[in-house]
Design goal:
The chain is an alpha+beta fold and 708 residues long. Among the domains are: 4-99, Roll (PH-domain like), CATH 2.30.29.30; 111-187, Roll (PH-domain like), CATH 2.30.29; 200-330, PH-domain like; 344-424, PH-domain like (Roll), CATH 2.30.29.30. The strands form seven sheets. It has an eight-stranded mixed β-sheet with strand order 4-3-2-1-7-6-5-8. An eight-stranded mixed β-sheet has the order 18-17-16-15-23-20-19-26. Strand 2 (17-25) and strand 3 (29-34) form a beta hairpin. GO terms for molecular function: DNA binding; histone binding; nucleosome binding.
Length: 708
């Protein structure tokens, strides 16, 4: 018999919702991994108490009960798989897989049994329905009546919110059956009640989602957010992951609490939040005293916390949360962007935020927050920006078909991000899945588990890492990691659009030279049309090189005279330092010496004004001459146009009066025509040289050429 059994497309029933995932049975126990959240349920073989096989809506289902009272339900099995599962349970778990069908009589009168965390309503020996008591949010009693209220499931279209049980009165003295029923429910229900004092309180913390400032009260089993308008209670059992992320400005820190999407999310009106994001300044410090004695602190937290602690506010909050939630804190790994930061500035949907490449996934903060694990990514894609070539888009598509597009990423980040994705062996859509790039993730491993505590190492070596980051950012600022988003395409575009002789750069064979010559020829037209438009405004704004130069100020006259002296007094001084030193010397100069340079500046100003007057008079005379020549040219053009019209009219009239003459002149030799053209050209030249000529004389010349 095989040591393991694996089933795909198995559904786990949790709080009225069916969650898709993978189920594996082995000698060690039962493992189920949720495809949506990545959460892993691990049931040890020694903890199993009972296994039940029954017919359900999605085929057949398996119900497992543990010795500590927990119930796990998995649906989606085929009827033919019963024998295989039954033999496996006998061989490895020493359990009989019992077959129990649900009662479908439709009766509403029966017996309620409490077993572990399960309420079962039975008719005879057959169960009608079962209610996991962890689904119950409130339990109220009335006369002979108990009402159970449930958490709302946002993923389901229809949610069961309330069930009422009628409890008949009994004759037993001192026992109220209604109260006994309610106590059994409340002992296992997920009812959050703030009983006792808080372990500690953090005042007025800035919260990004949900937005506002909240007092955070830390209780043994849940977190209480108290604001001016809203109050929220978050059980520690619903927390999936904790993140501590440095802001790009290196002055602030994000602390992110990721929650199981199936548990009741934080609600603010109609908006639901599955992430709690706190923003801290690195400069804020706090001294914290826990509301417990030292023995209780040592017994409960085993050295992870002490009664009196002090340090940065974000460190204290993360340290307390880590101890109570009992989950490791995820921090950014070895990724560093172009600027040296551990994140990338980008936009998701309509908001700008920060994308953090982690060791096991990506997280985007903050609106809306998105966490994507590597094991749920189908492929990633690097796409050109839609508006400009200075940025690109980073697209992620999951195995469920959900697509995330992070846009407006600076082009300089491309090389760093591509190397990171390549190192993590993610499938890149642009080039396909290459050999050796297949992901090596354990499909049943918890995405939160890590072999080492990165946060603990980060806290121990924080000073050293800051120093390294500063060095890396200074080194990276002087080199270009990625000159273009897609080098092959970028180079082609540059050659076509901006080279004046793009065809000359082609080193291909003779057969391709014709095609290369034809393509750039079309592009060259575009270049010639574009360039004058850019240069035209520059030529209009150009200054006359013959115009007098503006006079210098007293300080500039002094600086030109003293520059060499300052250089000799301070050898090797830079231009910037020289300017600073000159400013200091000028400021310390006496009033008498400054007046001397003021007089020189005044003399220069007077000389400039005198030269400008002479220049303006000369420029006016030039403009008058240019205006006269312009008018004369226009007049000559009009005269030439009039001559052409008269010539056309006279030739038309002569042809109508003497048709016989036209017939005889229709056979003219080539020499006669060319001489006619040359004579008409000479007449035009002579007319253009005359000023104010009256009637034109081409008719006499034409007749002379005709007699010849």
């Amino acid at each position: 018999m095989a040591d393991t059994l694996e089933f795909n497309e198995i559904y786990q029933e949790v709080k009225g919702s069916m969650n898709d995932g993978r189920l594996r049975l082995s000698r060690q126990g039962v493992i189920f991994k949720n495809s949506k959240t990545g959460k892993v349920d691990n049931i040890q073989a020694s903890e199993l108490a009972e296994g039940v096989w029954r017919r359900v809506a999605l085929g057949h289902g398996l119900k497992l009960l543990t010795k500590n009272g927990h119930v796990y339900k998995y649906d989606g099995f085929r009827e033919s798989e019963f024998d295989k599962l039954s033999d496996f349970f006998k061989a490895h778990y020493c359990l009989e897989l019992a077959e129990k069908d649900l009662c479908v009589k439709g009766w509403n009168w029966g017996t309620v049994r409490f077993g572990g965390q399960l309420l079962s309503f039975d008719i005879g020996e057959q169960p009608v329905f079962e209610i996991p008591l962890s689904n119950v949010s409130q339990c109220t009693t009335g006369k002979n009546e108990v009402t159970l209220e449930f958490h709302q499931n946002d993923d389901a279209e229809v949610s069961l919110m309330e069930v009422r049980f009628y409890v008949p009165p009994t004759q037993e003295d001192g026992v109220d059956p209604v109260e006994a029923f309610a106590q059994n429910v409340l002992s296992k229900a997920d009812v959050i009640q703030a009983t006792g004092d808080a372990i500690c309180i953090f005042r007025e913390l800035q919260c990004l989602t949900p937005r506002g400032r909240y007092d955070i009260r830390i209780y043994p089993t849940f977190l209480h957010l108290h604001g001016k308008t809203f109050d929220y209670k978050i059980p520690y059992t619903t927390v999936l992951r904790l993140f501590l992320l440095p802001h790009k400005d290196q002055r602030q820190m994000f602390f992110v609490v990721s929650r199981d999407g199936l548990d009741p999310p934080i609600k603010q009106g109609q908006t639901r939040y599955h992430f709690l994001i706190l923003l801290f300044s690195k400069d804020e410090d706090i001294s914290l005293t826990l509301n417990m004695n030292e023995e209780e602190v040592e017994k409960r937290f085993e050295g992870r916390l002490t009664k009196n602690m002090s340090g940065s506010l974000y460190e204290m909050v993360s340290r307390v949360m880590k101890a109570l939630v009992n989950r490791k804190i995820t921090v950014p790994g070895n990724f560093q962007g172009h600027s040296g930061a551990q994140c990338i500035t980008c936009s998701y949907k309509a908001s700008s935020g920060l994308l953090y490449p982690l060791e096991r996934g990506f997280i985007y903060v903050h609106k809306p927050p998105v966490h994507i694990r590597f094991d749920e990514i189908s492929f990633v894609n690097f796409a050109r920006g839609t508006t400009t070539t200075r940025s690109f888009d980073f697209e992620i598509e999951t195995k469920q078909g959900t697509q995330y597009t992070f846009s407006s990423i600076e082009r300089e980040e491309y090389g760093k991000l591509f190397d990171f994705v390549n190192a993590k062996k993610l499938n890149i859509k642009n080039r396909g899945l290459k050999e050796g790039m297949k992901q090596s993730y354990d499909e049943y491993a918890d995405s939160d588990e890590d072999q080492h505590d990165a946060y603990l190492e980060r806290m121990k070596e924080e000073g050293k890492i800051r120093e390294e980051n500063a060095n890396d950012s200074s080194d990276g600022s002087g080199e270009e990691t990625d000159e273009s988003f897609n080098p092959g395409e970028e180079d082609d575009d540059v050659a076509e659009e901006f080279d004046s002789n793009a065809s000359a750069s082609s080193s291909s064979g003779d057969g391709d030279s014709d095609r290369d010559d034809k393509k750039p020829a079309k592009k060259a037209k575009i270049v010639k049309d574009r360039k004058p438009r850019k240069k035209q405004p520059e030529s209009k704004k150009g200054k006359d090189p013959n115009a007098p130069k503006r006079p210098m100020s007293a300080y500039m006259l002094w600086l030109n005279a003293s520059r060499e002296k300052i250089k000799s007094d301070h050898p090797g001084i830079s231009i910037t330092d020289l300017s600073k030193k000159a400013g200091e010397l000028w400021k310390a100069m006496s009033k008498e010496k400054k007046e001397e340079w003021d007089r020189k500046a005044e003399d220069a100003r007077r000389d400039y004004e005198k030269a400008m007057k002479e220049y303006s008079v000369g420029s006016k005379a030039d403009s008058h001459r240019a205006e006269r020549s312009k008018k004369k040219k226009k007049k000559q053009e009009k005269q030439m146009k009039g001559k052409g019209d008269k010539k056309g009219a006279t030739s038309k009239s002569s042809s109508s009066k003497s048709p016989a003459k036209n017939m005889s002149e229709s056979f003219k030799s080539k020499e006669f025509v060319s001489s006619d053209e040359s004579s008409s050209a000479e007449s035009k030249k002579e007319d253009s040289e005359e000023e104010g000529a009256g009637s034109p004389a081409p008719s006499s010349e034409d007749s002379a050429s005709g007699s010849d």
